[in-house]
């Protein structure tokens, strides 16, 4: 009890107090703690050194890639597209350097206050620019304006807007404009061929872009060129068979004919008879390949190779050639076309006039449907079918032009009882103007047929489709077409013999044929050694103007173009007597006029009392 009470007194603070004893740290203990801290610091330093060694030596590639990803870029080096020239080296399609403005949306959107200034410089609404950037906010690249003038691009870059930069590109330019639009076609905004020869030879013309490695700053500007990864390989140049001068003549005369006749469209093709090369090809309506978006889509069609039409009377020389080869007629065989028509099933085959009795040459000269039908009756279906297919009807010409039509020529098992008769004068089958030109060029080349080519000096061996003697006989018959009494006197060219054939076909409509027409002229010049084959097709001429017959609407186009082409190519005349007679007549007309002028001058001097 007493012990317990003392304890209570101490706890209550009533007992005597003793000073608290403060523990002391020995020197050994302090040294140990310092040593421990030093060891920890050393270990931390070693860890940091090991980490630095690992980052800078062992695993440096990863972090270098991370750093490069923020500043190092591989950017393409644009490759220029190959130039297209005509056969004489005149440029027809060239690529010019332009600039394209692009932006890094991540950087540009950090400075929204600069967007109005940028939109004004780009010439686009602010909301459109903001919408384009917002939709691609997670990307690092977006085009803002492509293929602009370098000076305009420099003005935009001078604004020093974060994330905005430019890159070099190329834009296609066509110096000849509308004149060659259908042949050349055009490229898209990425300089890829879309139509025409630009599309057909895209792989040849298009170069291979290069790659260079650069360092860009946070504004997208190139700070340093680090490495050339791959040099750019320019595209190959392409030399066409087209002669720009003949092309201009063809386009000009076709355009004039369309305006004079009120036609809806037209096509013309000029071939080199000896090689099959396309010297000119024109179509109307046309378009400006330098501003493709401003033209209707229908105007882009190359009608000379894509549009099918019944060839009309241009088929008659082919029918005659088939019959001559089969030996069922001769140039002097007579055909009684009275009374100007013959039955053709429940229909009639008719002529515009009753020509009475005609020989084979007369059938071509007068363009007698009845005569052609009587000739075809002497041929079997197999003979007629085989001959036409040999000349390329019913299949593509092999020109390689994109979208070329093969034509429509049914096999004999699909013919009706009237098919062969109507096909003999150009109905019941469909062809392109290029197919007609190829067939006529074969007649002019002694029966050797070349595939048409748009490339100069391309290897293009011919194949024989007709005996040269028969081809010469047909040419002589076709020559009468352009002479007095023929249907195409307006195709005659002074000093040259012209072989040709008119054609006028009615356009098909639902359930039959309409009162709308296509007027053709297909010809060769000069007859002795044909140099050029040309086909002109005038579609839907206005009958109230010049009429609709091929000899009226199409033959003058042939004459005007061929006169210029013969002169440009220095082709010697093969009809010297007519040329000399014309020169003498012109000289005779000049002499009386000069005599009258001289007499008047002398009389005036006498009246004035002076000397001459």
List the helices and strands and how they pair.
Elements lengths: L1 H10 L15 H32 L1 H12 E6 L6 E2 L5 E13 L1 H4 L6 H8 L3 H10 L6 E7 L1 H8 L6 E10 L7 H4 L1 E2 L5 E3 H5 L1 H4 L4 E7 L5 E9 L7 E2 L4 H18 L3 E8 L5 E7 L18 H4 L9 H11 L7 E3 L4 E4 L2 E4 L6 E3 H7 L2 H8 L4 H10 L28 H5 L9 H12 L3 E2 L13 E2 L3 H12 L19 E11 L2 E14 L6 E8 L10 H4 L1 H14 L7 H33 L4
Parallel strand pairs: 2-10
Antiparallel strand pairs: 1-8, 2-3, 3-4, 3-5, 6-7, 8-9, 11-12, 11-21, 13-16, 14-15, 17-18, 19-20, 20-21
EC number: 3.4.16.4
Family: Belongs to the transpeptidase family. FtsI subfamily.
Pfam family, one: PBP_dimer
CATH topology of the largest domain: Beta-lactamase
Count of DSSP-assigned helices: 22
Low-confidence stretches: 1-13, 608-612
Through-space gap between termini: 179 Å
Largest sheet: 5 strands, mixed
Residues in helices, as a percent range: 25-40%
CATH class value of the largest domain: Alpha Beta
Mean pLDDT: 88
Q: How many β strands by DSSP?
A: 21
Catalytic activity: Preferential cleavage: (Ac)2-L-Lys-D-Ala-|-D-Ala. Also transpeptidation of peptidyl-alanyl moieties that are N-acyl substituents of D-alanine
Region (Disordered): 1-26, 590-612
Domain Penicillin-binding protein transpeptidase: 266-563
EC number: 3.4.16.4
